[in-house]
Design goal:
The complex is a heterodimer of chains A (about 170) and B (about 725).
Chain A (H helix, E strand, L loop, with lengths): L11 H11 L11 H11 L6 H10 L4 H10 L11 E5 L3 H5 L2 H12 L12 E4 L14 E3 L2 E3 L4 H9 L3
Parallel strand pairs in A: 1-2
Antiparallel strand pairs in A: 1-3, 3-4
Helix pairs in contact in A: 1-2, 2-3, 3-4
Chain B lengths: L4 E6 L2 E6 L4 H7 L23 E4 L6 E2 L10 E3 L3 H16 L15 H9 L22 E3 L9 H10 L5 E3 L6 E3 L13 H5 L5 E3 L12 E6 L8 E7 L2 E7 L12 H5 L14 E4 L2 E4 L2 H15 L7 E5 L5 H14 L4 E2 L31 E5 L3 H4 L1 H12 L3 E6 L10 E4 L5 H16 L5 H8 L5 H8 L7 E5 L1 H4 L4 H15 L2 E4 L6 H6 L20 H6 L4 E5 L10 H10 L2 E6 L4 H6 L2 E4 L8 E4 L5 E4 L12 H11 L10 H12 L25 H4 L8 H4 L2 H5 L1 H17 L1
Parallel strand pairs in B: 1-5, 15-16, 15-22, 17-18, 17-20, 18-19, 20-21, 22-23, 23-24
Antiparallel strand pairs in B: 1-2, 3-4, 3-5, 6-9, 7-8, 10-11, 11-12, 13-14, 13-24, 25-26
Helix pairs in contact in B: 7-20, 8-20, 8-21, 11-13, 11-15
The chains are: A alpha+beta (about 170), B alpha/beta (about 725).
Chain lengths: ~170, ~725
């Protein structure tokens, strides 16, 4: 085997979570749990994955590391570069767009001083490029912050949410 | 498997096909061409390039021929307006992001994309937007990348997954941003990786050392045979004005399928090196002089005549097992003519105790393709992936098809499939093997043969031994294969007795992995001290390699050997050669050890510069012509031997070609001896005492096997090649 990057140990908590998912699949199909495993690892690592962590997942699920990289880079839910610890996704799909999502994005960009796809230098916020509808059209415009939905946004409502984060 | 045949119609022609077969296999069989990029007969179906779309009656859309199983009554049109328009549309999409930089692309002229663009592309591009740019990847010293040219057929990805068993490349990212790569910078290290160059239908993956050095249409294509291992892989050499520029596989389903090892592909870069011997040289008063062929041959003849002056006994002949059949046969005749029996090619073997029980020609014990049909294979002392990469691939295929494979090895080499493993330390190899034999005897409730009974009764049987025995038990087609480590082991005779007893006990075949490209040929040509041509017993056995070196001769002929690198006992060899009155070296390269010990150096061609014949592990005679012109004044080895034979006044040394020499040997062999590995010796072994072993002598690194490979810079720069240097450091330290 070629020299591979340092492979860290996964935490007991993450291992337990992966095992729970592995249990849902037939024996020998443990690699089906890779998505859940990557979610758990990313969550514990402050919102992004590193090659070392992906190697650890590959080792744990007995699959080639490149297959984990393929999956992690395919899905937009996984970050493969360091990002801010609070992830903000503003839906800009059609319903939200018609209800002023572009203004909401502009407001957040101005407030944080970053463009979409960037993180603040202090590592607090990450304004994620949202690729698809987040399925909350009835409350448009909306955003998702750290997996929670906030609907019927106004610039003031956005400020209130962001002020409440550490 | 469903063997039902169905009738379909392709382009109006009725065709019979096996139900469930893919349409493209049927059209290929009947010679109707369907364009394709991602489909490859040796790989799984991906159906992602969409180039093979064809028109199937009653199907709502064109279907990909590579992923459409045939059904009864199917009517297919590969050339209808709908099929052609679908193929043309696919072509247009594939070319959207392709740079069309054919004039500066090595693939130009031999490119599937270029060919199909000619057939299915538009004359003018309608695409005016920006093209995508993809950064190149560094995949190591063997494969160059121009990833902007990639059309995402994923053949290289599937090759890693399915053929080598270690996936190094993948499709990273999605949609418009998808790229083929390794994600983190990493080279492709598997010993068959170079094949992705041939698989790549565009110029994205190319031959790195060959890069920009010739154009496909300028080169002549010459069939060649690999000289580096006993498989005898079939090659094509691409030759530009007499110089071998690169090597690619020549398809031979029975031997190498469509693959070759990197060692075969890149060894050509070891041919044109600074240290080639360009002119004959002789040593006068410790000074090397460049001389004409006449002078050199006269000196050589004089030196040899001096060594055999009183009796032939004073001369020892050592030949590389990678020499051609003609060369080995001429050496044998020369030895006979001069009256010496000290003749050997088994340079890396050290245990000759039981050599009378060697088969006439030790062979694989199975055809190469037949390895895949075996149910159980036990490899004894073999680092198979480095010894014969192409056979390692066959064994892996057998394992994936359900065969049980086991290894009795000093280390647990990585094999990329499930296998049983018995740890047999270098020094204590026989004890572990006896354990497997004991386990098999116990399971069958049969006693082991008498001559090994004592060894077996003393063996300790543990779970690993039982697991290895189970690889062979209760099966019809099994093979116990003795690898290079076993054959080079100082207790080889004991190992062979045990392996033979095991094979006999379980009713399996005993096989040998021949040491080199022509080890089998050397045995047939009688390049042995104890046997003549075709295995006939010698009247008086001469010295084997060890004997020749430990009882130094007055003179030696070294044929194609670097004495410091090609022999198990290199220190002993150095001492013997230094003390000899005369050493005549036939060599392609100048080497310090040769300069030190030899008196005459005759430049001969490498495998690419000579015609000849190799007999591979399954006994196939494969002849080839010289692919490239010899370097400098070098001449094919058989020709030099022929002239030297005349100079020595030996009878019947007038041959016109290598084929003439081969035919003379064939006539002398008459009915070629049939393959028969069965062991008829009765070496009795009792003590299984550990022995002193130098692991580096037994396990020769993959890119150190012969002089040409050792000089191939690209191979030495690979991870496997660099591992060699690291493993050698402690050795060099201990030698000084």
């Amino acid at each position: 085997m070629s020299a591979r990057a340092f492979t860290p140990e996964l935490s007991a908590q993450v291992c337990a979570e992966i095992d729970r998912w592995v249990g849902k699949f037939p024996a020998g199909r443990q690699r089906s749990a890779v998505l859940a495993a990557l979610h758990a690892v990313q969550h514990e690592n402050g919102g992004y994955l590193t090659p070392e962590l992906m190697n650890a997942v590959a080792d744990y699920l007995e699959m080639p590391p490149i297959q984990v990289y393929e999956i992690a880079t395919f899905y937009s839910m996984f970050e493969t570069k360091p990002v801010g610890r609070h992830s903000i996704s503003v839906c800009t799909n059609i319903s939200c767009m018609l209800r002023g999502a572009d203004d909401i994005v502009a407001h957040i960009e101005n407030r944080l001083g970053i463009r979409t796809g960037e993180s603040t230098p202090d590592g607090r916020f990450y304004l994620k490029q949202e690729e698809e509808c987040l399925a909350a059209c009835c409350g448009a415009p909306m955003m998702m912050v750290d997996h929670r939905y906030y609907e019927n946004l106004t610039p003031a409502a956005v400020d209130e949410v962001l002020d409440g984060l550490d | 498997m469903d063997e039902k045949t169905v009738s379909i119609e392709v382009d109006g022609k009725p065709v019979e096909a096996r139900a469930g077969q893919m349409l493209i296999d049927v059209t290929d069989r009947i010679g109707i061409y369907v364009p394709r990029f991602c489909y490859h007969g040796k790989l799984s179906v991906a159906a992602n390039c969409r180039m093979c779309l064809v028109d199937v009656e009653r199907a709502p859309k064109p279907l990909p021929a590579c992923a459409t199983p045939v059904t009864d009554g199917m009517k297919v049109s590969t050339r209808s307006a709908r099929a052609i328009s679908a193929q043309k549309a696919t072509m247009e999409f594939l070319l959207i992001n392709h740079p069309l930089d054919c004039p500066i692309c090595d693939q130009g002229g031999e490119c599937e994309l270029q060919d199909l663009a000619l057939g299915f592309g538009r004359g003018v591009s309608r695409y005016t937007e920006k093209k995508r740019v993809v950064a190149d990847k560094n995949l190591g010293p063997l494969v160059s990348t121009d990833m902007t040219r990639c059309i995402h057929c994923t053949r290289c990805v599937r090759f890693g997954q399915e053929i080598t068993g270690i996936q190094e490349l993948g499709a990273v990212g999605r949609s418009e941003h998808m790229e083929i790569g390794t994600y983190i910078e990493q080279s492709v290290d598997h010993e068959l990786s170079g094949n992705i160059i041939d698989l790549c239908p565009v110029g994205a993956l190319n031959n790195k050392p060959y890069r920009f050095s010739a154009r496909a249409w300028e080169m002549a294509v010459r069939p060649m045979i690999s000289p580096h291992d006993c498989a005898g892989s079939n090659l094509y050499g691409h030759v530009l004005r007499g110089t071998l520029k690169r090597v690619v596989p020549r398809e031979n389903e029975a031997i190498n399928e469509t693959w070759i090892a990197d060692r075969d592909r890149y060894s050509c870069h070891g041919i044109y090196t600074e240290d080639r011997l360009n002119v004959p040289m002789i040593k006068r008063d410790r000074e090397w002089l460049e001389v004409t062929w006449q002078e050199a041959l006269a000196s050589a003849a004089e030196a040899i005549a001096g060594a055999v002056a009183d009796e032939g006994d004073g001369l020892g002949i050592l030949a590389s097992p990678g020499s051609t059949l003609a060369e080995l046969y001429l050496l044998q005749r020369m030895a006979a003519g001069l009256g010496t029996a000290h003749l050997d090619h088994r340079l890396r073997r050290t245990d000759f105790r039981d050599q009378q029980a060697d088969p006439v020609w030790p062979w694989l014990g199975s055809s190469i393709a037949g390895l895949e049909q075996l149910e159980g294979i036990l490899l004894v002392g073999s680092n198979l992936r480095t010894e014969v990469p192409i056979l390692a691939h066959r064994v892996r295929k057998a394992a994936l098809a359900g065969a049980d494979v086991g290894f009795v090895n000093p280390c647990d080499y990585e094999y990329l499939f499930d296998s049983a493993f018995v740890e047999a330390p270098f020094a204590d190899f026989t004890r572990s093997l006896a354990g497997v034999l004991a386990a098999a005897a116990e399971d069958l409730d049969k006693p082991a043969p008498e001559h090994v009974a004592e060894a077996v009764s003393g063996a300790v049987v543990e779970a690993e031994h039982r697991a290895a025995a189970r690889v062979l038990l209760g099966k019809e087609r099994t093979l116990v294969l003795l690898g290079h480590i076993a054959q080079r082991h100082p207790r080889f005779a004991d190992i062979r007795v045990l392996a033979a007893a095991l094979a006999e006990l379980v009713g399996g075949q005993l096989g040998y992995l021949p040491e080199s490209a022509n080890s089998v040929g050397a045995a047939l040509a009688g390049c042995l001290p104890h046997r003549g041509i075709g295995g006939t017993a010698a009247q008086a056995a001469g010295y084997d390699v060890h004997g020749m070196l430990s009882s130094p001769r007055r003179g030696y002929i070294l044929f194609g050997i670097e004495p410091d690198r090609d022999m198990a006992e290199s220190e002993l060899a150095e001492a013997a050669l230094m003390s000899a009155d005369a050493v005549v070296g036939f060599t392609a390269y100048v080497n310090d050890a040769l300069l030190e010990c030899a008196d005459v150096l005759l430049p001969i061609g490498t495998f690419a510069e000579t015609a000849g014949t190799y007999v591979n592990a399954e006994g196939a005679w494969q002849s080839f012509d010289a692919a490239a012109d010899p370097v400098g004044d070098a001449r094919p080895g058989w020709r030099v031997l022929r002239v030297l034979g005349n100079a020595l006044g030996l009878a019947d040394f007038d041959y016109r070609s290598a084929a003439d020499v081969r035919d003379a040997l064939r006539r002398e062999l008459g009915e070629a001896p049939p393959p028969d590995n069965s062991y008829r010796g009765s070496l009795s072994i009792a003590a299984l005492e550990p022995v002193d072993v130098d692991p580096a002598v037994l396990d020769v690194p993959i890119y150190a096997v012969d002089a040409v490979v050792r000089r191939s810079e690209p191979l030495q720069e690979t991870v496997l090649g660099r591992a060699r240097d690291e493993s050698e450091e402690p050795l060099a330290a201990s030698a000084s």
